[in-house]
Amino acid sequence: MQATESQNIFNIREGDIRLFEQVFQMYCKELVRYANTILKNADEAEDIVQQLFVNLWQKRESLQVNTSMRSYLYRAVHNCCLNRIKQLSVKQTYTTYMGYAGEQHSAPASAAIQQKEVEKAIGVAIEKLPEQCRKIFKLSRQHGMRYQQIADELNLSVKTVENQMGKALKHMREQLKDYLPGVILFFLYHN
Asked: Is 69 in contact with 20 (CB distance < 8 Å)?
């Protein structure tokens, strides 16, 4: 760094507003062009550069330039642009999420109707099971009992309970094949 440039930086730190304005006039346009190549948005680029100079003036007393003023300013603009891109990315992710979340809650009436249809279809399918098969299925799925507990309660072997549950599940799949997406969603949101 040249002696005059280090003296200029010292003078800016000391509050030389005229010198600071000269630096601004000298670099502003090229820094805006540079920022625009990164951001692809002229207004954003101009805002970045203006905010950079405002921050520089406000924090001038702690200004540390180890390279040339030009290099320092380009590096600062580059970093500000990267930060802005990160902010925009986070904002876009949030907006996308909120749009998705909004869609999930936008049609509660139709979802409630669909849920009632699925519940009714499940109830009808359960009632169509043979009596012993139905008892075993209900004890397992509605009461959360294990196969051994069901076997003990109904005085059956565990193997018989397993076989009856296999038949019940096959029957339920066949009976509810038209409702399968709804059944999956029903069980996902009700567990």
From this structure: no
